[in-house]
Amino acid sequence: MKREEYLEKYNATTHILGRIASLATLILLLGAPFLIGSILGALPDLSAAFKGFLSVGIIWTVSSVVEFLVYTPMLGAGGGYLAFITGNLINMKIPCAMNAREIADTHTGTAENEIISTLSIAASSLTTIAVLALGVLFLVPLQPVLQSEALQPAFANVVPALFGAMAYQYFRRNIRLACVPLTIMTLLFVFVPSLISQTSIMIIPSGAITIALAYYLWRKKGGES
Predict the structure, then answer these.
(1) pTM given for the model
(2) Contacts by 23-29 with C-beta closer than 8 Å and gap 24+?
(3) Do residues 92 and 124 touch, judged by C-beta distance below 8 A?
(4) What is the pLDDT of residues 194-223, one digit of tens each?
């Protein structure tokens, strides 16, 4: 009973703080251009900004809704607020949370997963801030090294290397299940390169294919877990 009461209080507090932080972040993000423009005497053209938003807003709105529906159950309330406020979900927050969940052996929808997810994303955010601060501090001294031709192939493959290493630990559990959606999506991106920029939206069909195939294999085995 005490555990349930504590978790209920924890969730209520998390939502209050998360909503306040989200609102503050939204005000800061939207208010910064107007504040800078008023100081410099160069306010943004609202009509031009609105037209620009219409050209990409529909796509990003759908992508945002999809990411919210897919990632929130994985991260929980605390982790969800932190991840969406600090950003960079696909490259940093989601892999970090999934790896932490794997190490701690927690499951989606449990209080333990909520805590692990929140702690891992908080640690990831603090690490990102520290790395960015060091990067800004040493950007000028290290610029000749970072711009050398020998390091360019490494920088171009950071994200594929990160996701390849993270994905393999899940793919190896059921190679047959992983190969089908992976092959379909790879061929689709090769023959329709324009879909590469719609990765968030493509999560829906790839996830549906994986779920359908997993269900088929499960039924084929007689419904045994």
Answers:
(1) 0.63
(2) 25/85
(3) yes
(4) 887 777 677 788 888 888 888 888 888 775
